[in-house]
Amino acid sequence: MVKTSNTFVEKHTVIEKLNPMTKVLAIFSLGLGTLIFPNSWLGLLVIIGLFIVAYIAKILKEFTKVMLGFGIPITVMLMFIQGFYSPKNKTMIADFGFASLGLEGVLYALKIVSTLLVFLGSFYIMNKTTYTGKLVAALTETGLPPKVGYLILASLNVVPQMQRRMSVIQEAQNARGVETGGGVISRVKAYIPLLGPVVMSSLTDAQERGMTLETRGFGIKGVKQTSYVEVTKSKLDKVLRSLLIVFFVSVLLITVLMKTNVI
Question: Which residue spans traverse the membrane (predicted)?
Answer without folding.
Answer: 26-54, 66-85, 105-125, 239-258
